[in-house]
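Re: weekly structure request thread

Next one in the queue (494 aa):
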Amino acid sequence: MKKTGTLILTGWDSEGHAYAHSAALALLAYPDATVRGVSKARLSEALEQAEEYGRVLILGVALGGDPARLARTVRALARQRTALCWLSALPPPASVDAGTLQALSPYVRELSLQATVCACLGVKDSLAAAVKANAPLLDAAGYAHRHLEDDAYFAAAVRHIAHDEGPEAWSPEARALVRSHAALSDAPLTGHSTAMIEVRRMIRQLAHHPDVRVLILGESGTGKEAAALMLHHFSERRDNEFVPLNCAASNLHLLEAAFRGHEKGAFTGATEASPGVFERADGGTLFLDEAGDLPLEIQAVLLRILQEGRVTRLGGDGRKGGGARKVDARVIAATNRDLRRMVREGRFREDLFYRLNTVELRMPALREHAEDIPEIARDLWGRSRREGWRTLSRAQAEALSGYGYPGNVRELANLLERAYALDERDFGSLLDGYRSATGETGALQNTLRPDQSERLADMTRLHVRQVLEKHGGNVSHAAAALGVSRNTVLKYAR
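Done, posted below.
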């Protein structure tokens, strides 16, 4: 059977979108081609899945991975009369043998990748404006690839560029992805360990069930709010609000008012009516952070709202506008406390625990997926875009793996902030000084000590105070540097 069709394989852009630009240029020559993004490590795997195509264009993807596997795959395709062409602005690595290279029909020019594609395929580049217009979708597509293993949006973005289309042509799903990426870009769940892959799989699964309540468990700094954001933004509720409430940051009266809202004149200072968090999150998601810190009196208020699906504002008396209001908010709760033990001790209501815990999602501590530390560090560093510090070297990233991080990802981010502030590029020395300052002497810890929870709180308090001092006591600046709320800074700065 004669094989037809063209497959375009190109890389994933970290910035600049050169790969997507080049793939769109190739689509000008082969409008019906299939486009896929692929890393150099997975090039052989992608080629093994290309048997149905008559032509495969490989645009700028380095010839990496296992050389023997690449050689077998390329030669098998050549025997099956699949036309291969590797286009690159850089020469091939020495690890690729002459026979494999010949089968790849290399076209190498010391130009940009886009110019190389134009020269090889005989097309003109008039797509710069379309690349710029589709940049938000390309960025969001990269996020979906890294964190959700969803590559469909990349191909769609490349096709929009080739057709010289902008956001007006995006599908509703693509628009939703762009909105979600804007909210999620500062809260990634990075890592390719088994533990993080499972977390993202659970999030994808639960996002398809937008009414299921989820209890997120994990130590401070493990990404509980990031997980809640992903659950919201990849669910059908994404077009409505995500409303976070820190349950440890207010007194009894303020917490009740936060849950129920209030009518004008309900109490001294209530000069206007105000909706509570359930009303604000109606149709969307209510995130109860540090839910284990809720006082028992407020637990009863929350339980009643969850049971009835209605909320009555403080000062509401049943008259028009003042009675019970029906609310439909997905509730996601998070805590670093042992709620089951608190239930046994009478400090957390058992009926509320089961109302909140339809499905449990556990966020692993950083020491439980230490192999992800270099990747997480590079991700944190890349998003900070430090002037004069373009990237972390391999030695710097690997040096960070020698510490246990009781404060988890938040502590890792704090350590990188310290490196930048001190202009310290030797991360081995940085960690030695850091251990001395914090009293941490051991390397990576694999188990929790009985006093770990108290120690974690002490470490967090120390870090918050250090960052607050660095920013001259400015709570807002310290909160931004730590990636937490002002209330959290105030809580730990006391």
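The chain is about 45% helix and 10% strand. The mean pLDDT is 85.
Next request, please.
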